[in-house]
Structure formats: structure tokens, C-alpha cells
Amino acid sequence: MRNYRIVVIPGDNIGPELIEAALDVLETVQKTEGDFKVAFETHQAGAAYYAKTGVAMSPETLEACRSADSVLKGPVGDPAVRTPDGIEAGLLGGILRSGLDLFANVRPVRLYPGVSTPLQGYEAGGIDYVVVRENTEGLYASRGRGVGGPNAMADTMIMTRPGVERIVRFAFNLAQKREGPPSDGVRRVTCVEKSNVLRSFVFFRDIFFEVAAEYPGIEAETIYPDAAAQALVMNPGHYDVMVMENFLGDILSDLGGGTIGGLGMCPGGNIGDAYSYFEPVHGSAPDIAGKGVANPMSQILSAAMMLRHIGEAAASSRIEKAVWKVLETGDVRFDERGRAVPGTKAVTKAVIGRLEDS
Ligand code: NAD
Ligand code: IPM
Ligand code: MN
Predict the structure, then answer these.
(1) Quick check: pTM over 0.90?
(2) DSSP codes of every residue in 5-53
(3) Which of 6, 46, 49, 247 is paired with 356 by a 20 to 30 Å CA distance?
(4) Residues of the chain with pLDDT under 70
(5) Residue 309 shares a structural domain with residue 243
């Protein structure tokens, strides 16, 4: 029996609803696989925790995240809970992403069957790319460090050579393991950068091509972010792995979500050399919290990514296939805004049913 210890952070608003769904799926998959066992350890952190205690996460929880095999996190945050300088207080990116040096934010954008996409002419599987978002520097290096006064404010974007090299190399290594994009199967890494205007992006682009030279079998190309926003709507089937600065990755990964049935279809992983955690791309969705209509697939697929990362690839694939099957057969339906028509619990139950049959 292979044993794992996973820290679970339910988070805020829809977070606990989604985590409940993902844990039910994980319990089913480990029961039916039978050769590994995950011990879950729940810790509170986020905006509600900050409102109660004055910190977003306790030092004990951070230590638990370090010592666990990985972490499954629900979305956190509440726009009303802010620090005295005005930014949101209950977020964990600074503590977990920077604190644990999780430099790669991996955000797959895959069109599953049966979802409500505004794009026409795309079949299931016709969009299948991964946004590799640099997760520890770029504009977010300025997190909590903005300077200025009543008449001007500045946040600074920082790119370092080791920081850019490692994220670009991560992107090429990922492309090597994939089979290329749906449109032509040509392994490809696309760098999104704004070198027409900003010197930091000239630096990013130059390092991108230096690293690309180490991977002659993979096509390397660049695109400006404004053009990329159009291309991800008009020609998403062309893209395989996309690598970019932190803030650009934040924006374009949500844009990708808008093309594949909404953010509720978007899982993600935050990965470093020593630690990791897995969470949906989206936030805590206060507008639908407590209504039972959130799409839990983002959290369920994040759990599948986590299983693959800790070494349980077979169980991970089984979850992804069960999700595909549920959506393909129309067992459940989502409205045009990506909300679960039969409710979060019914979607989860359908995934569990498919898992038990597989
Ligand atoms: P959001 O991602 O929470 O919501 C954007 C829209 O997508 C909303 O209409 C929401 O209802 C919808 N949506 C999101 N997830 C969904 C799901 N699973 N099923 C169906 N619909 C879904 O973005 P926001 O409203 O800008 O932010 C809300 C809070 O979340 C803020 O406090 C923000 O800072 C925080 N946030 C946290 C994370 C994180 O924990 N990783 C990520 C993004 C935003
Ligand atoms: C995300 C979120 C975070 C980010 C926020 C909540 C700090 O939007 O994970 O994409 O901007 O990175
Ligand atoms: Mn975001």
C-alpha cells in the first residue's frame, strides 16, 4: 500500500462546496484502485480565517504544507476583506507561491464535451493547451510592495535570469511530454511577451530563444499579449504550451476558461522543485456561494492533477476519463454562464457513478 499525506484547505465562499466534491471523488478513486491510501488533514486559511485571526494562514499550516506530499486548496478570498493599504488580505499566493518557491503555475485549457462554449466549430478535444504562468516574479514581485502617495503609485515588474530560465525550461519539458496541439500535432511552445514596448520583456524573449535552442524538436514562437488574446479566441487549436510572465498568465488563463465552458472547467497546479499545491484557476465566486450551483470539475480535475504529481497517474487518468464521460453522455448540464444546472452535488455524484463503473 502506498501512503500519502495531503493537506486540504477548503477556502472561502464556494471553496468548501468544491472541496467536499473533490474529496468524495478522491475517496472513491482510492477505494476502487485499492493500492494507495491518502490521509487528508484539513486546515483553515484564507479571508474568513484572516477576519477571525488577523493572519491569512498560521505558521503551523504552512509547515504542514511543507511536510505533506502535496496540498489540495479551494479558492480563497473576499473582496471585502482587505489590509490597511487596500489590497485583499485573505489571499495565499504570497505565502504559498512565493513562500514555497512554486515557480510554475500550470493551467491546462482543454475543451471537454458537452460544455457551453461560445466558440463555434470546435469539437471536444479541439482546444488543448497549457498556460505555464511564471509564479514567483514578474509584476507580482511587487505584491505588497507598491510605493507612492496620494498622487502617484508604482508597482514594479521584475524578471531575473534564473527565474525566466527555469520557467521556460519547465514549458519546453512539458511540451516534450505532450503530443502537440489538436490542429497539427506539432510540439510547440509559444512565448507571450510585450517586447515591442518593455525592456523586461525583451529580456524574457531573449532567454526564451536561448533555452529554445536546447530543444530542437520543439517549435518555438512568440506572440504579443494583445494578439494572443485574439488568437486564443479565434485560433485556440494552434496552441500547445504557452509560457508567460505572471500577470499575463493570470489574465490569459481566465480568458482560456471563457472558451471551454467557464472557469469551473479550469484546474491548476502550483509546482516547485520541493513543494506543490493544486487549486482551480478561479476565485471564491461570492456571487454564487451557498447556492449549490458551482461547477466542481475545476476542483475535481485539480485533485486529478495532484494525484499525477505525487505518482498516481492511473488514478488521475481515471478521474479525467470519468469527467469526460459524464460530460459526453450529457448526464449533467451547465448553463451558458457555466453553472451546474442540476447542482454541484449532482455533478459530483455523476462523476462518482462513472468512477465506480470504470
Ligand atoms: P471568480 O473567479 O471568483 O469569479 C468570476 C466569475 O466566474 C463569477 O461570475 C463566478 O460565479 C464564476 N465562477 C467561478 N468559479 C466557478 C465555478 N466553479 N462554477 C461556476 N461559476 C464559477 O473571480 P472574482 O469574482 O473576481 O473573485 C472572487 C474572489 O476570489 C476575490 O476575493 C479574488 O481575489 C479571489 N480569487 C482567488 C483565487 C484563488 O484562490 N486562487 C483566484 C482568483 C480570485
Ligand atoms: C489566481 C488569482 C490570484 C492571482 C489572486 C487571487 C491573487 O487571480 O490564482 O489566478 O492573481 O494570481
Ligand atoms: Mn486569476
Answers:
(1) yes
(2) EEEEE--STTHHHHHHHHHHHHHHHHHHH-SEEEEEEE---SHHHHHHH
(3) 6
(4) none
(5) no
